Amino acid sequence: MGPMPDRREKILAVSAELFATKGVASTTVRDIGEAADVFSGSLYHHFKSKNAIVAELLTRYMNDIQRRFAEVVERSQSPQEVLRGLILETLVIIEQHPHPTAIYQNDRRYLRDNGLLEPVDHASRSVREYWMTAIRAGVADGSLRDDIPAEVFYRSVRDSLWASMHWPIRGGYSTGEFADLLTRLFFGGFATER
């Protein structure tokens, strides 16, 4: 194995950062080549198009989320433990994959218009199932309340987690501390017990 895989990884890393900061539509193959120190022609040796780079970044991203969520389910003993794990892993994913996270969140129109959103949305639906399965199991075993629809709980948690990457206070907490705070808020609410 020579420098080829390294060059391919460098192209992916550089592209991810450019897409996240400039937007996918505004990033050209020339931009990527210059940033990765690769001629455009040689770049096409690794990827047939800019969209092929985007597709690979998002596929790796979604595969990592699926792998992490499957591990959470595997090691958890209860629905609440699964949900705690999913909350933590989502925050870890945002932290470890800031560029694909930004691409997925900020460039949805580009992804949709270029046929790149459907594969990601398909993977995203199976990620959603990890949440919904745990929530329904918690309602069924009585550990979670049944007077709030599972879908409302799921979307509230999911949207809060993804939005938190933009919160100015986010940097004041470690990932574990922040996951713990949000878990306590979602499971316990904000009102004191009377």
Automatic annotation (TrEMBL):
Domain HTH tetR-type: 5-65
InterPro entries: Homeodomain-like_sf (IPR009057), HTH-type_TetR-like_transc_reg (IPR050109), HTH_TetR (IPR001647), KstR2_TetR_C (IPR041490), Tet_transcr_reg_TetR-rel_C_sf (IPR036271)
PROSITE patterns: HTH_TETR_2 (PS50977)
Coiled coil spans: none
Protein name as it appears in the record: Transcriptional regulator TetR family protein
Keyword set includes Zinc: no
Keyword Cell cycle among UniProt keywords: no
DNA-binding region per Swiss-Prot/TrEMBL record: 28-47
SUPFAM superfamilies in alphabetical order: Homeodomain-like, Tetracyclin repressor-like, C-terminal domain
